[in-house]
Amino acid sequence: MSASAAATVLTAAQKAQTFANQTAETARTEVIKEPLGFIKILQFFLALLAFATAVSGGSDVSFNRKCLNTSQPVLYKGKYNYPYNLKNAPLKPQTIECLDQKADRYTIATETNNIVSSAQFFVFTGVTAFLYSIAVLIIYIFFRHKYNNIVYLPLIDFSVTCIFTIFWFAGSIAWSKAVGDLQHFTDTETIIETMIFCKKNNNQNLCSGYETANYANLIVSCILGFGNLIVWAGDIWFVLKETSWYKLRASMRQQSTAATNNPISPNEINITAHYNPNDKI
User: Fold this and answer.
1) Per the domain annotation, does 50 fall within a domain?
2) Among 4, 38, 50, 254, whose Cα sits 20 to 30 Å from the Cα of 61?
3) Nearest of 61, 94, 65, 99 to residue 208 by alpha carbon
């Protein structure tokens, strides 16, 4: 390596070290102890848990069917995963297939209401809220001086916080309704009642429940959704206090309070009369 190349590398390393030192000096880790930063950490973890549990709510449903070609009941099983499109979740025999009816033409449900769209919107809200919390937390810690000095940054933060509050409100309600519909459509009794191949021999029921789906993650995701709603709604107040709107009104309120509490008395007003003989009356 030539001397000039070595000098260039050394200069670049020194600049990088200087930038790292300046960044470390300007970092304000104490902001995470304040409500503004601490709530962002809560939003980060709650959003992560909300969409993680929502996408991991897949499960299996199964039931037995009496077949004409075997003395033992045949186990039929269906599996569903995110985004929980039950129309594309086929029911298949796990051992042999009944000769009198092919169940692979059937799915867990023929209608799913708005389960798919509700699940996708809830996960979208969780992922974007998760990413936004990371970005804003970095700004709070490393670029706090710019956040305080640039007027539009707190305004943007306030607007986005309000938008996410609305998203969590709408998404949590829609997702809770979707989870209720999912529980209904994946219940073994509901599946057996809606499956045509379970009704044979003068409407005799040939199917019986075997395994019920697990809804634990979905229920937890609903709870976390409303938890996110509470945290984001509460954060509106703390972000509002950082905006120029609030600071201007607070300053005007302080001036008004000071003027009310400390009025100017007549004794403090000095009126000096100046008489000039040349003035005409």
Assistant:
1) yes
2) 50
3) 65
Cα separation, 167 vs 174, whole angstroms: 10
Say how many C-beta atoms besides its own lie within 10 A of residue 156's C-beta: 13
Q: How far apart are CA 109 and CA 207, in angstroms?
A: 16
Q: Which domain holds residue 196?
A: 30-249
Residues contacting residue 250 through CB under 8 Å, at least 6 positions apart? none
Q: What's the confidence (pLDDT) of residue 160?
A: 96
Report the residue count for the chain: 281
Question: Could you give the number of structural domains in the chain?
Answer: 1
Q: For residues 114, 116, 118 and 123, what is the CA-based torsion angle, rounded to 10 degrees?
A: 180
CB 222 within 8 A of CB 176: yes
Half-sphere exposure of 276 toward its Cβ, with a 13 Å CA cutoff?
3
Q: What is the pLDDT of residues 70-105, one digit of tens each?
A: 677 888 888 899 999 988 888 887 776 666 565 456
pLDDT in tens, 193-241: 887 777 766 666 778 777 788 899 999 999 999 999 999 999 999 998 8
Q: Where are the beta strands (DSSP E) in 119-180?
A: none
> Strands 199-200 and 74-80, how do they pair?
unpaired
Measured from the Cβ of residue 39, the count of other Cβ atoms closer than 10 Å reads 20
* CB contact at 8 A, 152 and 159: no
The 10 Å Cβ neighbour count of residue 98 is 20
Assess if residue 42 is contained within a domain. yes
Q: Is residue 9 in some structural domain?
A: no
- Contact (Cβ atoms closer than 8 angstroms) between residue 109 and residue 194: yes
pTM for the structure as a whole: 0.76
Structural domain contains residue 267: no
